[in-house]
Amino acid sequence: MRSEIADSEKVTAIKEFLGFREFQLVNTNIGARKDYAGTYRAFIENIRLPSEYVAKMCESRYFTHFYDQAAISAARQRWSDDAVETD
Q1: Could you tell me the pTM of the whole model?
Q2: Cβ atoms of 79 and 52 closer than 8 Å
Q3: Closest Cα to residue 24, out of 8, 36, 40, 38?
Q4: I need a labelling partner for 52 at 20 to 30 A (CA). Which of 2, 58, 81, 84 fits?
């Protein structure tokens, strides 16, 4: 299961997989509520990784299993240092 899908989709998938009629997902470790939330958000918005590393991750068996080509291309664009515009 992809971690970034909506919680409602996670609940549905877990209920179906386990055969539960009821299931509730409770979020307890929420980064946006932590003291470091601003720093983490800035890090995520600004981090760019070496293109070789991003390529290796995007071509991995696990990544290609869970993501289609459009999502893989978006991940390459989002995370790769090749995507950084220079002046």
Answers
A1: 0.71
A2: no
A3: 8
A4: 2
